[in-house]
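ok, trying the design again with the full structure, not the truncated one.
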């Protein structure tokens, strides 16, 4: 698995239409009325990476296995969702389980679909959803703070440690800021992540535009880009309408020709994935052999043992070394043996930091 992200937004902004298009399925019912998504739908898409096929061709691999991105389509939130309005409250728990939040914003005027707020204003829409998520975090963290304070006063060391994280988090939430604005030091990050704060997750704004704005955007997307830059989020422009049409084209050449005719060089899915990887600071490494060539995703800065653990926990526990070849070297010297003969295969130990594109073979003993 690469990473998973929850698709959130107000009703009727194109969430389910976008979900269907990006996953090329009809799992989510897209309709012109609120709450058409009754249960959270999950879809997986292969992460496109041209390096996979190139490596597989050199290794004469029987199988090619990409890494995957998982989308979770969550019911439309409305004002008061944190207090149980609409169906949004039921799905807040699902948002807590994802790596990142993909917030779909309607950035096109006109059309037959009615907007739940009566007008088109993506900045207002973003603030409505952010407020509901913030209120949900605040309610749960205030309860947790109260119980943790009691335990800390009783001499519980773990509670004191947790309290040092909870106090700054609750402080920023009370000020109307998301949990990610809290100042958390490195040694507290694990405890912070364990809190499963919705507003502690990175945010990717997906500006859903009409076909005419798919290339250069419009005044709405420019406003969203400015907002995203101010809060350290990311923003991409996607046309759910175009993605729906692309999803129906099975032939790759037809897809390319269709996109080029619209002035686009890639699908919205590719833009979402690239932005998501950058937002979460992820990289890809590969394993190659005659049986299969496979892509794996790890966080930037992951050591060789942690990369090994993505394949199997035993690889990490019994890690000895990683026989590593840079992607460019693998191509230049026609594979593992050629790179080895040229002295380009490296024996890396426990402290090695995995690089994007590394082709790795792990030696371990359990």
């Amino acid at each position: 698995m690469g990473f998973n992200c929850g698709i959130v937004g107000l009703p009727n902004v194109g969430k389910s239409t976008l979900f269907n298009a990006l996953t090329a399925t009809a799992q989510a019912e897209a309709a012109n009325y609120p709450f058409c998504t009754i249960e959270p739908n999950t879809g997986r898409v292969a992460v496109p990476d041209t390096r996979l096929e190139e490596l597989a061709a050199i290794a004469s691999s029987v199988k090619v296995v990409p890494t995957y991105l998982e989308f979770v389509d969550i019911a439309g939130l409305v004002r008061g969702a944190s207090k149980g309005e609409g169906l949004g409250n039921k799905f807040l728990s699902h948002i807590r389980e994802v790596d990142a939040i993909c917030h779909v914003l309607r950035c096109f005027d006109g059309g037959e679909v009615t907007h739940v707020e009566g007008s088109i204003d993506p900045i207002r829409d973003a603030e409505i959803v952010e407020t509901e998520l913030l209120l949900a975090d605040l309610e749960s963290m205030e309860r947790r703070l109260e119980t943790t304070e009691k335990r800390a006063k009783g001499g519980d060391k773990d509670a004191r440690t947790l309290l040092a994280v909870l106090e700054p988090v609750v402080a920023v939430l009370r000020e109307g800021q998301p949990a990610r604005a809290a100042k958390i030091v490195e040694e507290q990050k694990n405890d912070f992540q364990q809190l499963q704060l919705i507003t502690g997750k990175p945010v990717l704004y997906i500006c859903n535009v009409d076909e005419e704005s798919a290339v250069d955007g419009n005044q709405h997307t420019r406003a969203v880009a400015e907002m995203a830059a101010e809060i350290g989020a990311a923003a991409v422009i996607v046309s759910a309408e175009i993605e729906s049409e692309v999803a129906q084209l099975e032939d790759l050449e037809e897809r390319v020709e269709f996109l080029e005719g619209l002035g686009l060089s890639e699908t919205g899915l590719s833009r979402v994935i690239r932005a998501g990887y950058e937002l979460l600071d992820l990289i890809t490494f590969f394993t190659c052999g005659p049986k299969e060539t496979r892509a794996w995703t790890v966080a930037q800065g992951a050591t060789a043992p942690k990369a090994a653990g993505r394949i199997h926990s035993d690889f990490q526990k019994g890690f000895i070394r990683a026989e590593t070849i840079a992607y460019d070297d693998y191509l230049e010297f026609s594979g593992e043996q050629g790179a080895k003969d040229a002295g380009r295969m490296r024996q890396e130990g426990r402290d090695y930091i995995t690089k994007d594109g590394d082709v790795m073979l792990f030696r371990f003993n359990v």
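Keeping the full-length input from now on. Confidence is low (pLDDT under 50) at residues 25-38.
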